[in-house]
Amino acid sequence: MSETVDVVLIGGGIMSATLGTLLKELQPDWKIVAFERQGEVAQESSNAWNNAGTGHAALCELNYMPDAADPSKAVQINEQFQQSRQLWTSLVAKGVLDEPKTFINATPHMTFVRGEKDVEYLRARYETLRKQPLFSGIEFSEDSRVINQWAPLLMQKRRKGEPFAATRTPSGTDVDFGALTRQLFDHLTENGADLRLNHEVKNLSRQRDGSWLVQYRGNVGRTPGRLRARFVFVGAGGWAIKLLQKSRIPEIRGYGVFPIGGQFLKTSNPAIVAQHQAKVYSQAAVGAPPMSVPHLDTRMVDGEGSLMFGPFATFSPKFLKDGSLLDIVSQVRPHNLGSMLKVGATNLDLVKYLVSELLKNRARKIDSLREFMPTAKAEDWELIQAGQRAQVMKGGKLQFGTEVVSSADGSIAGLLGASPGASTAATIMLNVLKNCFADRLAEWEPKLRELIPTYGDFLNDEPAKAAASTKTTAEALGINA
């Protein structure tokens, strides 16, 4: 007879780590088993060098607010990041997480644009956002001297007479999601969770009693195994689509994913790093997916500072860096083929953009960096490969963002999509709890409010509460502006 557990988590990234932590706090007696294909957790999208580490709060990312007069999406993203900050604050206080500086550091968020049209847009965006309580600290300038104080590398040897402008929010953050994931899993295993590294889940099948038969195989020795789970969460990045399809839940019908890879230019030269303390975003190229917005970022990973610029889009049919060349083909089903073909036919700008990116050699990538940093020298920068992102395709549209797919009975859920992903993991996992454990929410609410004090509230609607919450978490996490 197969072993029976309460929860199976598939994938060793920030999403599984966050959900597992919440469930361990809510139901300490539940037996949790986590599977990870690799020999360590946080080796794909959650790895520090596979993402830009931006604490996505819509402070600098223009794609969350294409209409300068409509702040709704930006406010929503910021609200979600505040929930993550509150959860991390609580977990630090409880000793679940280490010192905050091991995973989060204060890093101003900036937006820098050039040309009259974009300057006008950024000014209008600033005027809209500064009236929103969660964006009260935002600053705007078209003065080269001010922008030079904010980010000197942007202005050195900048061509005179060119219209430019910038916004800056001092309360931005840089987050090492790899370190955060490892710390959460360390706590889970210390408190009874079973983390099975080098184990790959091969199949999921629903049983008559509503549980799930999880069939897996060890990567060492190829030893097969299976267990039953009352609840399954598929947080396997790009591979989530494959496992959800194997589950045969009707809710996955119509979904497909399109993989987009990326590269960054990186420098750890102390003389250069010392001149830039910010994450600076700009406008995306025509046809570029939102995740390809160019940005020059301060990073702090394992106590070492560096700068990253990018991303430069790459293409691979793999859904994970360590995936299969057949991934993009193996997902095709009669129910999603038409939608996928429509996406290809209606996103010619994206195709053109990807082709242009693939044709860029290293010298042209350095030229792109010099549009941000005119003094950049090629010898100071190296190219690193970032993680794979699997963008959601549904209804003939290519969707950007994250989406939870769960069965009607709440016995299984999975996460598809990409950014803002990790930054909003707390909110996304709270939604999983709402969708899959609705009958327990009333019982769990006191504990959830202990972990996330403004659980269920909208901070932006209450200026005093927004100010108090951001101040409290900033002080606790050591990210005071």
From TrEMBL:
It catalyses: (S)-malate + a quinone = a quinol + oxaloacetate. Pathway: Carbohydrate metabolism; tricarboxylic acid cycle; oxaloacetate from (S)-malate (quinone route): step 1/1. Pfam families: Mqo. Its EC number is 1.1.5.4. The keyword Cell division does not apply. Keywords: FAD, Flavoprotein, Oxidoreductase, Tricarboxylic acid cycle. InterPro entries: FAD/NAD-bd_sf (IPR036188), MQO (IPR006231). It comes from the Bacteria. It is an enzyme of class 1 (oxidoreductase). Its cofactor is FAD. Belongs to the MQO family. This is Probable malate:quinone oxidoreductase.
